[in-house]
């Protein structure tokens, strides 16, 4: 595995309103974390991870799956 740096990523819920998405982005810019952590995200029934190509989605998900397996937790990743 390549070198992995834990970034404490925060995940955001995207609403239909551009205004709330803009406000969420502005809050993040100024250091207010309003998103979900990996632990919060793992409690959800399902989610969609959406980002630009090359942003590291696959690598992040593979690393998280490996981490979960090491903790004897269920992990499934189909790439």
Rg from C-alpha positions? 14 Å
N- to C-terminal distance? 16 Å
Q: Give a count of the beta strands, DSSP E runs of length 2 or more.
A: 0
* Share of β-strand residues: under 5%
Shape: globular
The domain tally reads: 2
**Helix/strand structural class:** mainly alpha
Low-pLDDT ranges: none
Helicity level: 25-40%
Largest sheet: none
Topology order in helix (H) and strand (E) letters: HHH
Nearest-integer average pLDDT: 76
Number of helices: 3
Give a description of the structure.
The chain is mainly alpha-helical. It has two domains: 9-48, no CATH class; 52-79, no CATH class. 39% of the residues lie in helices and 0% in strands. The two termini are 16 Å apart. The model has no long low-confidence stretch (mean pLDDT 76).
């Amino acid at each position: 595995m390549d070198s992995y740096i834990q970034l404490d990523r925060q995940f955001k819920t995207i609403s239909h309103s551009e205004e709330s998405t803009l406000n969420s982005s502005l809050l993040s810019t100024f250091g207010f974390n309003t998103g979900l952590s990996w632990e919060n995200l793992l409690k959800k029934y399902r989610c969609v991870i959406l980002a630009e190509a090359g942003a590291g989605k696959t690598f992040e998900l593979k690393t998280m799956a490996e981490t979960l397996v090491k903790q004897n937790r269920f992990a499934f990743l189909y790439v």
